[in-house]
Fold this protein.
Amino acid sequence: MAAATREDEEERGALTTALERLSVDAGEYAASEDDEEEEEESEPPAPYACAYCGLADVRSCVKCLHCSKWFCNGRGKTPGSHIVMHLVRSRHKSIQLHPDSPLGDTVPECYACGSKNPFVLGFIPAKGNAVVVLLCRSPCAHTSTSKDVTWDTSQWSPLIQDRAFLSWFVATPTAEEARHTRKVNAQEISMLEDLWRSNEQATFRDLQTTQVEEEVVKTQTVYKDAFEYQRIFAPLVAIEAEYDRKLRESQVQNAVVVRWDTTNPRKPRAWLEMPQLESGELRMAVGDEIKLKYQGELHAPWEAIVQVVSVPQNAVTEVGIELRHGTYAPTQCTHNFTAEFIWKGTTFDRMHSALRRFANEHGCMSGYLMRSLLGHAMPPSTLTTPLPTRFTVPGLPELNHSQVCAVKAVLTRPLALIQGPPGTGKTVTSASIVYHLCQMYPGPVLVCAPSNVAVDQLTEKLHQTGLKVVRVLARTRESLSNTVNFLSLHEQLAKASMSPELARLTRLKSEHGELSTSDERRYRSMMKACEREILKAADVICTTCSGMGDVRVQGLTIRSVLMDEATQATEPESLIPLVHGCKQLVLVGDHKQLGPVIMNRKAAQAGMKSSLFERMIQLGHRPLRLEVQYRMHPCLSEFPSNMFYDGALQNGVTAQERQQRNIDFPWPNPGAPMFFRQNLGQEEISGSGTSFLNRTEASSVEKMVTSLLKAHVLPSQIGIVTPYEGQRHYLITHMQLHGSLRKELYREIEVASVDAFQGREKDYILVSCVRSSERQGIGFLSDPRRLNVALTRARFGLIIIGNPKVLSRDPLWYYLLQHFKAQQLLVEGPLSNLQPSMIQFPRVPPGVRAQERRQAEGLAVDPVRAPFRTQPSAASDAHAPWSGGNHGTPLLSLSKSDRLTEDDELELRSQASVADDDTADLSVFVTHTSIPP
Ligand SMILES: Nc1ncnc2c1ncn2[C@@H]1O[C@H](COP(=O)(O)OP(=O)(O)O)[C@@H](O)[C@H]1O
Ligand SMILES: [Mg+2]
Ligand SMILES: [Zn+2]
Ligand SMILES: [Zn+2]
Ligand SMILES: [Zn+2]
């Protein structure tokens, strides 16, 4: 954007001039905010009164341009101001000030690109402070390439801070003004927003009448029979599905720009420009369906269902789509399209159908297993098949003692649980078990896990043992590149030897794009038979839990099932792979890492968020425990071991084995390759309105990554973990724009949420904590399970970047920080000259009780005896979020995630919709066009 000349300002109308007129500078105006002003308004309510609290003041009320309701910039009892609460909850993203406000009826927008999303807007005081200019955070304020000399983009500061508009922009009501308004809390706001979705005119009065909600029945530990089980779970699945549907369908993208590609006029392709992808507010997967509508003036209204065929990787906002064969499209139009998202409830349908089978089909699993799952007391049962003489299997590491014990025990039991901290070889042990099961029984063994990442890991290990492995992928994922793609059913099918007849049909299909109806039918049934043969001949079938509901595997009988990361699956999800004749089940997991994500609060509270694995432990099943970890440098495992696993985690690797030579990186203590880098920069709400980012942290991460790369660490060895989607997105963009090395290097680095990293490892991990506000708390960072996962992904080195002042108010983080500080690894300053931080903590954070305080005062630096550790005799156990107990059955206790704030929920939802989406459109059968040579 060129310098803002007077003509520009006149042209663009808007803010700059208004601000200039006032000669305001952010600071100055803020000081004058409590100027006394005209007398109070009373009934009848002004049209611009806040729809939440009723406050009516032209300076502090703004209009939401999306729904035309007005909201004030006061916060009363809520964590954010009313207007901000509304924008977050409703996902509305543009506002207008009151015509009689000091700035007139301004619609704040980015001076350079016109974006109106208040969450991305910020201001830069111009030289001389006469005017300010509004720019969006990214890309406009972010690109220092701006030739504009008038604005110093390093001065950029967001318009919304601490969840309210800056008071010079929209006034904050004074206490006096707020006194007579309705006192609303966050929960009421949330309910009213829900109500507005179906009735725009609703008020708080309607809320009271609709408050009688139907009760949901809670899950139990023991069920009378499978009918009862189904009766309880089916409604929970339905609530969760309904929630998911509403969420998906509420994501409408307006003003979509379409770039058509009409090389094949019968099957037009196009690229949709979707700005929402930029903010990370929208996640799309290949295979998603979109209803694309045209409502502009250049053509009659048009709409079609299109399928997403390519999604952008990093920092691109275009989605590739394909129209159905022969669909007409107004390819002369490029603007004014709308995209609505079509929800697919496949996973939920599969849960329902598994529940039905469980209840109604006698032979769907062995009687023993069924009664065990229902919680009926069963005499221990031993399988009598002869055991192998050697337990270590080809292609995998030599098993240690506890691993051998686990394998041996599992092979003789119809139902077994394996539990182990990160890196203890759960997956290696699982692969070994599967290897033996394949030798012991005919027919394929089923290996599954709730996430695709976990399945792929096992698939890879199983392949190493020489077993014949088939990976069944959802159709939607077939085109995604992956290390184990060559094992997927569709690729094996493409390589399979075909009958001459099938080869002919395949060739015809690829040449003409389609077949006659009868040929198509023949083609499909022959392909299906071919698939069936591959599956039947396999030693192992690997798929996600929900993947076992795929039509391609229906009708197979599966005797043995092993489920990895079982603590991340909901019960109905776990049931899907079990109703195909299961007689032997192995559940592998760690209930001290993250559990399943349930988005609907009611379903979660009713018990949906606890896994089958956890319930089995409650029922008294003793898990086989693995305790030697092979992942982390011993200095990295120390804290998690003490804090989360009673100090029982032993190291199977030495410091020497985890020391990378020739890596010249300024570790403050090279013998302990970890540190906590202090960052005091502020958190900001991200463009989605529901997530957070931290710009100074991002820039710090980029510098460290660059330094690692310069030290010859490969991009594939580095992982960046951050709990917030907003930060994930910002980091990717930031590294692209500001990384000093080749852009591709940064692009190859994986940046993911903590949740997405569960079950995985990288050589070097950087954790960006993001939260850094004195007032807002640290959200779901306080979930011990999330911290546990974040701390245990690295093999060689770990760097945490965060605000110690804010984080140390949480007891768990307090001990972590003390742990770093005691070793002089809590540092500040530039990377080239890291110095121990001078920060002083309160002796003990609030929330730690007297008993613990006494301990902490003496021992805080010694996490071995920190209160979170659960020594069987320690009285401090009462507060411990984990009561593991070295001996006997770990008790399950509620984690803090049960107290998620609503903002955390919104964040988790947006991450969950990242859709490990595993549901293909299964009505379409094989669509191969490749012909084997
Ligand atoms: N007995 C063992 N000896 C040597 N390395 C092992 C052994 N068991 C596991 N590992 C290694 O430890 C790392 C973590 O193993 P993994 O099975 O992924 O652990 P988990 O699933 O419990 O997180 C892997 O690199 C794996 O090869
Ligand atoms: Mg694992
Ligand atoms: Zn609105
Ligand atoms: Zn209000
Ligand atoms: Zn902009």
